[in-house]
Design brief:
- The chain is an alpha+beta fold and 192 residues long.
- 40% of the residues lie in helices and 30% in strands.
- Strands 2-1-6-5-4-3 form a 6-stranded mixed beta sheet, with helices on one face.
- The longest helix has 28 residues.
Length: 192
């Protein structure tokens, strides 16, 4: 009987010792990754500043290089452009001689896992209209950045729109249609 008691007690002690050891090992084994959000936010702000300077130099290839291969650009009053070739075409229409574009981030937020971030801010642009007259624009933008496998940040989604009121569409001149149906009805009544 005593040996049975000793065995049960020994089993309990062994179980408690193993449980304590497992808890201690799991607590020591899981280290939280370092919080790099501040460093990442500064890196994105620096990239965004450099990107604005690249666009100001009317460098289409350079401006396009900040996007991932499958990124989406959503310009105002136009369909979304997905993929570098479509994005390059949008930038090629913006970054032409005589146009000027620049922007500055107001806010950069990095996710807890430091793999996604967004930045928003304001842009200024001077572009030529159809008559060659310079038109000023200002507005806001939103960019979604994703950390790549090599640790570099690239834009996966980009959207901007103007703060200025929309320009009304030109009015179409409508020609009045002759009222033939009513005139016929009147003629028939006179004959009768």
């Amino acid at each position: 009987m005593i040996s049975l008691y000793r065995r049960a007690r020994k089993s309990k002690l062994t179980f408690l010792a193993c449980g304590t050891l497992m808890l201690f090992a799991s607590a020591c084994g899981e280290k939280a990754p370092p919080d790099t959000r501040g460093t990442d936010a500064n890196a994105i702000r620096d990239l965004d500043t450099q990107w604005s300077k690249t666009a100001a130099a009317n460098d289409v290839e350079g401006a396009t290089s900040y996007y991932t291969d499958d990124a989406t650009l959503m310009p105002p009053n136009a369909p979304a452009a997905t993929g570098k070739q479509a994005i390059r075409a949008v930038w090629a229409g913006i970054l032409i001689p005589g146009n000027a574009v620049s922007w500055q981030a107001d806010k950069v937020e990095v996710g807890r896992a430091s793999d996604l971030a967004y930045s928003d801010g304001e842009y200024q642009a001077t572009m030529k209209d159809a008559q060659g007259k310079a038109v000023m624009d200002r507005g806001k933008y939103l960019e979604v950045w994703k950390k790549q496998a090599d640790g570099k940040w690239k834009v996966v989604a980009d959207m901007f729109n103007s703060d200025l009121p929309a320009t009304p569409a030109p009015e179409k001149k409508v020609r009045a249609k002759p009222r033939r149906g009513r005139a016929r009805a009147t003629r028939h009544k006179k004959r009768a």
